[in-house]
Protein backbone atom coordinates (compact mmCIF):
# COMPACT_ATOMS: atom_id res chain seq x y z
CA UNK A 1 0.00 0.00 0.00
CA UNK A 2 1.26 3.48 -0.86
CA UNK A 3 2.30 5.45 2.27
CA UNK A 4 -0.07 8.20 3.23
CA UNK A 5 2.75 10.77 3.10
CA UNK A 6 3.42 10.00 -0.56
CA UNK A 7 -0.18 10.05 -1.76
CA UNK A 8 -1.11 12.85 -4.20
CA UNK A 9 -2.55 15.92 -2.49
CA UNK A 10 -1.30 14.98 0.98
CA UNK A 11 0.35 17.77 2.97
CA UNK A 12 2.32 17.09 6.09
CA UNK A 13 1.44 18.81 9.34
CA UNK A 14 3.34 22.06 9.79
CA UNK A 15 3.87 22.62 6.06
CA UNK A 16 3.15 26.24 5.11
CA UNK A 17 0.11 26.43 2.84
CA UNK A 18 -0.08 30.17 2.19
CA UNK A 19 2.74 30.78 -0.23
CA UNK A 20 5.52 33.21 0.58
CA UNK A 21 3.23 35.59 2.48
CA UNK A 22 0.16 34.76 4.55
CA UNK A 23 -1.77 37.81 3.42
CA UNK A 24 -4.97 36.85 5.25
CA UNK A 25 -3.12 36.31 8.52
CA UNK A 26 -1.13 39.53 8.10
CA UNK A 27 -4.32 41.48 7.37
CA UNK A 28 -6.06 39.96 10.40
CA UNK A 29 -3.21 40.81 12.79
CA UNK A 30 -2.87 44.34 11.35
CA UNK A 31 -6.60 44.91 11.64
CA UNK A 32 -6.58 43.65 15.23
CA UNK A 33 -3.80 46.07 16.16
CA UNK A 34 -5.57 49.01 14.51
CA UNK A 35 -8.96 48.22 16.04
CA UNK A 36 -7.32 47.72 19.43
CA UNK A 37 -6.31 51.38 19.72
CA UNK A 38 -9.31 52.74 17.83
CA UNK A 39 -11.68 51.06 20.29
CA UNK A 40 -10.26 53.28 23.05
CA UNK A 41 -9.62 56.37 20.93
CA UNK A 42 -10.26 58.65 23.90
CA UNK A 43 -7.01 57.34 25.45
CA UNK A 44 -4.94 56.62 22.35
CA UNK A 45 -5.87 59.51 20.05
CA UNK A 46 -7.67 62.24 21.98
CA UNK A 47 -5.45 62.19 25.09
CA UNK A 48 -2.19 62.78 23.15
CA UNK A 49 -3.83 65.65 21.29
CA UNK A 50 -4.88 67.25 24.56
CA UNK A 51 -1.37 66.81 25.98
CA UNK A 52 0.17 68.45 22.90
CA UNK A 53 -2.29 71.35 23.11
CA UNK A 54 -1.47 71.84 26.80
CA UNK A 55 2.25 72.03 26.00
CA UNK A 56 1.63 74.78 23.46
CA UNK A 57 -0.73 76.68 25.77
CA UNK A 58 1.64 76.49 28.75
CA UNK A 59 4.65 77.67 26.74
CA UNK A 60 2.61 80.43 25.10
CA UNK A 61 1.38 81.72 28.47
CA UNK A 62 4.73 81.33 30.20
CA UNK A 63 6.84 82.99 27.53
CA UNK A 64 4.34 85.38 26.03
CA UNK A 65 5.69 87.50 23.21
CA UNK A 66 9.08 88.05 24.85
CA UNK A 67 10.76 84.85 23.71
CA UNK A 68 13.46 85.39 21.11
CA UNK A 69 13.28 83.65 17.77
CA UNK A 70 14.88 80.21 17.50
CA UNK A 71 16.58 79.32 14.21
CA UNK A 72 14.81 82.29 12.63
CA UNK A 73 11.34 81.11 13.71
CA UNK A 74 8.89 82.38 16.33
CA UNK A 75 9.21 80.07 19.30
CA UNK A 76 5.78 78.46 18.93
CA UNK A 77 6.47 77.77 15.26
CA UNK A 78 9.76 76.16 16.33
CA UNK A 79 8.05 74.23 19.13
CA UNK A 80 5.17 72.77 17.11
CA UNK A 81 7.10 70.23 14.97
CA UNK A 82 9.03 69.04 18.02
CA UNK A 83 5.85 68.37 19.96
CA UNK A 84 4.36 66.61 16.94
CA UNK A 85 7.30 64.21 16.62
CA UNK A 86 7.55 63.71 20.38
CA UNK A 87 3.90 62.66 20.43
CA UNK A 88 4.39 60.39 17.41
CA UNK A 89 7.30 58.46 18.90
CA UNK A 90 5.64 58.09 22.30
CA UNK A 91 2.45 56.74 20.76
CA UNK A 92 4.23 54.36 18.38
CA UNK A 93 6.24 52.96 21.28
CA UNK A 94 3.15 52.62 23.46
CA UNK A 95 1.16 50.84 20.76
CA UNK A 96 3.46 47.85 20.26
CA UNK A 97 4.74 47.66 23.84
CA UNK A 98 1.28 47.68 25.41
CA UNK A 99 -0.02 45.05 22.98
CA UNK A 100 2.82 42.59 23.63
CA UNK A 101 3.15 43.07 27.38
CA UNK A 102 -0.62 42.86 27.88
CA UNK A 103 -0.76 39.62 25.91
CA UNK A 104 2.15 38.18 27.93
CA UNK A 105 0.62 39.15 31.27
CA UNK A 106 -2.85 37.90 30.36
CA UNK A 107 -1.48 34.65 28.98
CA UNK A 108 -2.98 35.03 25.49
CA UNK A 109 0.30 35.66 23.64
CA UNK A 110 -0.24 32.16 22.30
CA UNK A 111 -3.02 33.58 20.10
CA UNK A 112 -0.29 35.44 18.19
CA UNK A 113 2.37 32.73 18.25
CA UNK A 114 0.25 29.73 17.21
CA UNK A 115 -1.30 30.99 13.93
CA UNK A 116 0.69 30.25 10.74
CA UNK A 117 2.47 33.59 10.72
CA UNK A 118 6.19 34.01 10.14
CA UNK A 119 8.32 36.30 12.30
CA UNK A 120 8.32 38.89 9.53
CA UNK A 121 4.53 38.81 9.26
CA UNK A 122 4.10 39.19 13.02
CA UNK A 123 6.53 42.11 13.02
CA UNK A 124 4.75 43.74 10.07
CA UNK A 125 1.35 43.31 11.72
CA UNK A 126 2.39 45.01 14.94
CA UNK A 127 4.21 47.79 13.10
CA UNK A 128 1.14 48.47 10.95
CA UNK A 129 -0.79 49.33 14.10
CA UNK A 130 2.02 51.55 15.40
CA UNK A 131 2.45 53.43 12.11
CA UNK A 132 -1.30 53.90 11.65
CA UNK A 133 -1.69 55.33 15.14
CA UNK A 134 1.32 57.60 14.62
CA UNK A 135 0.00 58.92 11.30
CA UNK A 136 -3.44 59.65 12.76
CA UNK A 137 -1.94 61.54 15.69
CA UNK A 138 0.50 63.42 13.43
CA UNK A 139 -2.26 64.42 11.00
CA UNK A 140 -4.47 65.66 13.84
CA UNK A 141 -1.67 67.72 15.42
CA UNK A 142 -0.59 69.14 12.05
CA UNK A 143 -4.18 70.16 11.35
CA UNK A 144 -4.39 71.88 14.72
CA UNK A 145 -1.11 73.70 14.08
CA UNK A 146 -2.41 74.92 10.73
CA UNK A 147 -5.69 76.15 12.20
CA UNK A 148 -4.41 77.68 15.45
CA UNK A 149 -0.85 78.76 14.63
CA UNK A 150 -1.25 79.19 10.89
CA UNK A 151 1.72 76.87 10.37
CA UNK A 152 1.67 74.80 7.19
CA UNK A 153 3.98 72.04 5.98
CA UNK A 154 7.03 73.30 4.11
CA UNK A 155 8.20 69.93 2.75
CA UNK A 156 5.42 67.31 2.93
CA UNK A 157 7.59 64.44 1.64
CA UNK A 158 10.27 64.97 4.29
CA UNK A 159 7.70 65.41 7.04
CA UNK A 160 5.96 62.16 6.08
CA UNK A 161 9.26 60.30 5.73
CA UNK A 162 10.45 61.21 9.23
CA UNK A 163 7.06 60.53 10.81
CA UNK A 164 7.01 57.04 9.28
CA UNK A 165 10.65 56.40 10.24
CA UNK A 166 9.91 57.57 13.78
CA UNK A 167 6.90 55.27 14.03
CA UNK A 168 8.89 52.31 12.70
CA UNK A 169 11.84 52.95 15.00
CA UNK A 170 9.83 53.43 18.17
CA UNK A 171 7.33 50.73 17.24
CA UNK A 172 10.24 48.31 16.90
CA UNK A 173 11.81 49.49 20.16
CA UNK A 174 8.44 49.12 21.89
CA UNK A 175 8.25 45.54 20.68
CA UNK A 176 11.80 44.81 21.92
CA UNK A 177 11.08 46.41 25.29
CA UNK A 178 7.88 44.39 25.73
CA UNK A 179 9.67 41.17 24.83
CA UNK A 180 12.34 41.84 27.48
CA UNK A 181 9.90 43.02 30.16
CA UNK A 182 8.12 40.38 32.19
CA UNK A 183 5.63 42.64 33.98
CA UNK A 184 4.05 46.05 33.73
CA UNK A 185 6.40 47.57 36.30
CA UNK A 186 9.43 46.78 34.14
CA UNK A 187 7.67 48.25 31.12
CA UNK A 188 6.92 51.43 33.07
CA UNK A 189 10.59 51.78 34.03
CA UNK A 190 11.63 51.63 30.36
CA UNK A 191 8.99 54.17 29.39
CA UNK A 192 9.60 56.63 32.21
CA UNK A 193 13.39 56.50 32.40
CA UNK A 194 14.38 55.93 28.78
CA UNK A 195 11.70 56.81 26.23
CA UNK A 196 10.28 59.94 27.87
CA UNK A 197 13.66 61.56 28.71
CA UNK A 198 14.99 60.85 25.21
CA UNK A 199 11.93 62.41 23.58
CA UNK A 200 12.13 65.48 25.84
CA UNK A 201 15.91 65.97 25.64
CA UNK A 202 16.45 65.55 21.90
CA UNK A 203 15.72 69.06 20.69
CA UNK A 204 11.96 69.15 21.19
CA UNK A 205 11.95 72.42 23.13
CA UNK A 206 15.29 73.92 22.10
CA UNK A 207 17.94 73.91 19.41
CA UNK A 208 20.80 71.54 20.24
CA UNK A 209 23.19 74.25 19.04
CA UNK A 210 22.45 75.99 22.33
CA UNK A 211 23.89 73.06 24.29
CA UNK A 212 27.44 73.22 25.64
CA UNK A 213 30.01 70.63 24.66
CA UNK A 214 30.12 67.64 25.00
CA UNK A 215 26.32 67.46 25.13
CA UNK A 216 26.00 69.04 21.70
CA UNK A 217 28.23 66.38 20.16
CA UNK A 218 26.42 63.60 22.02
CA UNK A 219 23.07 64.84 20.70
CA UNK A 220 24.25 64.18 17.15
CA UNK A 221 24.64 60.49 18.00
CA UNK A 222 21.01 60.25 19.08
CA UNK A 223 18.61 59.00 16.35
CA UNK A 224 15.65 60.61 18.10
CA UNK A 225 17.31 64.01 17.69
CA UNK A 226 17.39 63.41 13.93
CA UNK A 227 13.72 62.40 13.96
CA UNK A 228 12.71 65.64 15.65
CA UNK A 229 15.10 67.69 13.56
CA UNK A 230 13.83 66.05 10.36
CA UNK A 231 10.21 66.69 11.29
CA UNK A 232 11.09 70.34 11.98
CA UNK A 233 12.68 70.59 8.54
CA UNK A 234 9.65 68.99 6.90
CA UNK A 235 7.18 71.30 8.62
CA UNK A 236 9.05 74.55 9.23
CA UNK A 237 11.86 74.27 6.68
CA UNK A 238 14.76 74.65 9.15
CA UNK A 239 17.04 72.09 10.79
CA UNK A 240 20.08 71.82 13.05
CA UNK A 241 21.70 69.03 11.01
CA UNK A 242 21.79 68.13 7.29
CA UNK A 243 18.51 66.44 6.50
CA UNK A 244 20.12 63.72 4.36
CA UNK A 245 22.39 62.78 7.24
CA UNK A 246 19.35 62.57 9.48
CA UNK A 247 17.56 60.36 6.99
CA UNK A 248 20.57 58.03 6.77
CA UNK A 249 21.00 57.79 10.56
CA UNK A 250 17.30 57.14 11.12
CA UNK A 251 17.15 54.59 8.29
CA UNK A 252 20.14 52.71 9.73
CA UNK A 253 18.65 52.76 13.24
CA UNK A 254 15.31 51.45 11.92
CA UNK A 255 17.03 48.63 10.02
CA UNK A 256 19.02 47.59 13.09
CA UNK A 257 16.04 47.66 15.45
CA UNK A 258 13.70 45.82 13.08
CA UNK A 259 16.31 43.16 12.30
CA UNK A 260 16.78 42.55 16.03
CA UNK A 261 13.01 42.37 16.55
CA UNK A 262 12.68 39.91 13.66
CA UNK A 263 15.44 37.70 15.08
CA UNK A 264 13.86 37.67 18.53
CA UNK A 265 10.45 36.82 17.13
CA UNK A 266 11.90 34.09 14.92
CA UNK A 267 13.72 32.49 17.86
CA UNK A 268 10.86 32.97 20.34
CA UNK A 269 13.18 34.79 22.72
CA UNK A 270 11.30 35.44 25.99
CA UNK A 271 8.05 34.81 24.13
CA UNK A 272 7.78 31.03 24.02
CA UNK A 273 7.86 28.93 27.21
UniProtKB/TrEMBL annotation:
Domain ABC transmembrane type-2 positions: 39-268
Location in the cell: Cell inner membrane; Membrane
GO molecular function, one term: ABC-type transporter activity
Taxonomy of the source species: Bacteria, Pseudomonadati, Pseudomonadota, Alphaproteobacteria, Rhodobacterales
Main localization category: membrane
Species: Paracoccus versutus
Ranges that cross the membrane: 40-63, 75-94, 123-150, 156-180, 187-208, 243-265
Membrane topology listed for this record: Multi-pass membrane protein
Cited Pfam families: ABC2_membrane (PF01061)
A single cellular component GO annotation: ATP-binding cassette (ABC) transporter complex
Keyword annotations of the record: Cell membrane, Membrane, Transmembrane, Transmembrane helix, Transport
Annotated family: Belongs to the ABC-2 integral membrane protein family.
Protein name per the record: Transport permease protein
